[in-house]
Specification:
Helix content: 25-40%
Bound molecules: zinc ion
Number of helices: 16
Shape: globular
Strand content: 15-25%
Radius of gyration: 21 Å
Number of strands: 19
C-alpha cells in the first residue's frame, strides 16, 4: 500500500539548495499538509507515495521558491511614474506627496498586482514595508503568498493611522491579529533614521522586543542620509543606531550602502541582517553596498527588489543577474559574487535574514513546501552545463511554470489559480487615473 500524499512533483531536475547538495536528475518531491515529506529518486518516491495530484516536471528544474527580502509591494501603482531622480528628490517631491493621499483600496489592489507579478516570477515569500498593512496582509493571504509585513512608521501623519503615536498602536494590533497565521507574520518597521526621531525609534525597539518580532529599517542607503544624520546627531547612521541600542540580531537593515570597515565589523558582532537591493540602488544612484565584505564577515545578506517605483519590476531572477554583475564590474573582478552565492542570497540566505530558514529557503524533508518549477526547454536556457549559472545569468521570472506555496498549488502552467488577473489589471487602470488626478492637484 502506498502512502497517500497531496502532491507529487516528478521527473524534474531537483535543486534542493540545502548545504552541500548537488542537482539530481529524474527526481521527485512528495508534499503533504503543506510540508515536504519525501525527496529523492523518482522511482523511490513514487514506489512509496501516491499523490492526489501529480505534476510532471520533465525538462524543468524543481527548486525552492525565491525570497524577496525587501519590498514595498503596493508601490506597483507608481511603476514608471517618476523615474530618473535622486532618492531625496524622488521621495520628497513625488512618492511621499502621492502616498499622503493614498487609500486602502489603492494599497489592496496594488498589492494584489505585486503578488501576481511575484508569483509569476517565482517569488514565494516577500518582506514588505508599507501603509494600510492589514490590507497588504489580506492581499498576500488571498494570493497564497508567504509574507513578513509591517506598517511604515515615521514622525509625520500617516494617511492610514493618523498621528505618529497611533502607528505603534496599529502595529501592535496587527501583530496580535496575524499572530497565528500560517502565511503572514508582522514586524515593527520604522522607515529610516532621517524620518524617525530617536524617541520613536526607542518605542519601536521596545515593541519589537516585547513581541519578539523583527525590527526593519532602511539604513545607510544614500550619501545624503549619511550627511544628514551626521549633521543632526554627530554620528554616522550605523553609530546612531548603536547609540540607540538598535543593532541586534532582530534587526533587518535594508540597503547598508554607506558603511565603513568598523561599521561592518559592528554589524557582524551584533548579528544584524542585511538586505541588498542592487537595482534600486543603481536606479536611484545610491551607491554599491559592500556585499562581499559583509558576507566575508558572516553577516547574513538577503536579496530584495525594493519597491517597484525604484526598480521597476519585482523579478528576483533579474535581480540576481544584476547583483552578480554589479559587484564584478565595480571590483573589476569576475570571481566576486559567483552565481551560487547570489542564488543563496535569493533563497536560503534570504530566509535566514527573515528568520525563516528553519522552515523555508531549501527543499528538505519536514520543511514547508514552497517550491517552484522552472521550464528549461527554452532557447535561452540550452544547452545546460551548469544549472545554477543558467538560473542567475540566463533565466528570467517568465520561465517559471508552476508555483507551490505552503503545499498549495498557486500557479499551474503559468495560470494563476488564486487571483483574478483580469480584474486586477482593470482596477489598476482606474487607480492610475486617480493617482494622476491627485498628483496634479
Ligand atoms: Zn525600501
Amino acid at each position: 500500500m502506498k502512502i497517500p500524499v497531496d502532491m507529487i512533483l516528478t521527473k524534474g531536475i531537483l535543486l534542493t539548495l540545502s548545504p552541500g547538495s548537488d542537482p539530481m536528475a529524474d527526481a521527485a518531491v512528495a508534499i503533504s499538509r503543506g510540508r515536504i515529506v519525501a525527496i529523492g529518486n523518482k522511482a523511490q518516491v513514487e514506489n512509496r507515495f501516491e499523490g492526489k495530484i501529480t505534476i510532471d516536471a520533465q525538462g524543468c528544474v524543481i527548486m525552492p521558491g525565491l525570497v524577496n527580502a525587501h519590498n514595498h509591494a503596493a508601490m506597483t501603482c507608481y511603476r514608471g511614474m517618476a523615474d530618473d531622480l535622486p532618492l531625496m528628490d524622488w521621495l520628497s517631491n513625488y512618492i511621499f506627496p502621492a502616498e499622503s493621499k493614498s487609500d486602502g483600496e489603492q494599497v489592496y489592489w496594488s498589492t494584489l498586482l505585486a503578488c501576481a507579478e511575484m508569483i509569476r516570477s517565482g517569488t514565494t515569500t516577500f518582506c514588505d514595508m508599507y501603509l494600510f498593512t492589514d490590507l497588504v496582509a489580506k492581499a498576500a493571504k488571498e494570493a497564497g503568498l508567504r509574507a513578513l509585513v509591517g506598517e511604515v512608521l515615521y514622525d509625520f501623519p500617516s494617511p492610514n493611522y493618523g498621528s505618529p503615536d497611533k502607528g505603534l498602536e496599529y502595529t501592535e494590533t496587527l501583530i496580535n491579529r496575524w499572530r497565528r497565521d500560517p502565511l503572514i507574520s508582522v514586524a515593527v518597521e520604522p522607515h529610516a533614521l532621517y524620518t524617525c526621531s530617536p524617541s520613536l525609534l526607542g518605542q519601536c525597539r521596545e515593541l519589537a522586543e516585547r513581541y519578539e518580532v523583527p525590527l526593519i529599517i532602511h539604513l545607510a542607503e544614500s550619501r545624503s542620509e549619511l550627511e544628514e544624520i551626521s549633521k543632526r546627531y554627530g554620528k554616522t547612521p550605523v553609530k546612531h543606531m548603536e547609540s540607540l541600542g538598535l543593532l541586534s540580531s532582530s534587526l533587518i537593515a535594508c540597503h547598508c550602502v554607506w558603511l565603513n570597515e568598523a561599521e561592518m565589523d559592528l554589524l557582524a558582532q551584533r548579528g544584524v541582517k542585511v538586505v541588498h537591493n542592487p537595482e534600486s540602488n543603481m536606479k536611484l544612484a545610491s551607491g554599491i553596498a559592500p556585499v562581499p565584505e559583509l558576507l566575508g564577515r558572516g553577516v547574513p545578506v538577503g536579496l530584495g527588489t525594493d519597491g517597484c517605483a525604484s526598480n521597476n519590476n519585482l523579478d528576483l531572477f533579474q535581480e540576481m543577474d544584476t547583483a552578480a554583475k554589479l559587484h564584478k564590474v565595480h571590483r573589476l573582478d569576475p570571481t566576486i559574487m559567483p552565481a551560487e552565492v547570489v542564488l543563496h542570497m535569493a533563497t536560503l540566505g534570504g530566509a535566514k535574514v527573515l528568520g525563516m530558514d528553519k522552515e523555508i529557503g531549501s527543499l528538505e524533508v519536514g520543511k514547508k513546501a514552497d517550491v517552484i518549477i522552472l521550464d528549461l526547454r527554452r532557447p535561452h536556457l540550452q544547452p545546460i552545463y551548469n544549472l545554477i549559472s543558467h538560473l542567475v545569468y540566463s533565466a528570467t521570472g517568465a520561465d517559471v511554470r508552476d508555483v507551490i506555496i505552503d503545499g498549495q498549488l498557486i500557479m499551474q502552467n503559468q495560470k494563476l489559480l488564486t487571483l483574478n488577473e483580469e480584474e486586477i489589471l482593470a482596477k489598476m487602470g482606474e487607480i492610475r487615473g486617480r493617482i494622476l488626478q491627485r498628483v496634479s492637484h
